[in-house]
Amino acid sequence: MYSKFVVYCGPMFSSKTTRLLSELDRFRIRKKDFLCFKPRIDDRYSGGEIVTHSGMKIPAQLVEEGSEILYHIVNYKGEERPIIAVDEAFMIPGVADALITLHQQGFTILVSTIDLSASCLPFDEVTKILPYATVIHKCTAVCTECGEDASYTYRKFDNTDVGEISVGGFDKYEPRCQMHHPYFD
Fold first, then answer.
1. What are the C-alpha distances in Å from 123 to residues 38, 55, 157?
2. Quick one: pLDDT at residue 168?
């Protein structure tokens, strides 16, 4: 059975989650089952839902690590193999191994994720996933400085104590183009 492994990646505010939910809506219209997952630490808009910045939402299982996704799949009671959707994959340790395993078993996988940190470092889980993707959508946002396409996330505060992953929205981050991201100075 042919299965897809679709990745929507890019900076904050590039409509990755919106595109993920739109694709799930197409599967819903086709009457396909799907299971959605998001990191437990991502509590920006809702604890039990994947939510876009514009308010679109869908119920999701909260997970702390990739092995929990496998647990939910093993215990799934549906009649057909579900589509697996994961939002903000970069925040879930072990997600790459879990999703690669499921893809090898014939599951269709949809992922939305930031690919680079605000320091322009690639996230390990995303780096592991990308070679297995059958389709990669590199999404861009709009640079808050000049209005051009933005491929990078800028952290508005300089606090190295938080590490590479710090959950937030417009309060902490904004999209920037190469000309206006300090990494390229």
1. 16, 26, 20
2. 56
Whole-number Å distance between alpha carbons of 95 and 100:
8
Tokens 């009649």, residue located = 79
Give φ, ψ of 57 to 5 degrees.
Answer: -155, 160
Q: Helices 66-74 and 95-104 meet at what angle, rounded to 10?
A: 40
Is residue 88 flagged as an active site residue? yes
Contacts for 24-27: CB closer than 8 Å, 24+ residues apart: 24/58, 24/83, 24/85, 24/110, 27/83
Q: How far apart are CA 21 and CA 6, in angstroms?
A: 13
Contacts of 47 (CB under 8 A, 6+ apart): 62
- The CA distance from 98 to 73, in Å, is 10
109 Cβ partners below 8 Å, 6+ apart?
Answer: 3, 4, 5, 6, 83, 84, 85, 86, 99, 102, 103
Tokens of 117: 């940190």
* pTM of the model as a whole: 0.91
Quick one: pLDDT band at residue 70, thresholds 50, 70, 90? very high
DSSP-H helix ranges across the chain: 16-29, 66-74, 95-104, 124-129
Instruction: Point out the catalytic residue in the list 23, 68, 88, 174.
Output: 88
pLDDT tens digit string along 23-36?
Answer: 999 999 999 999 99
Beta bridge partners of 136: 7
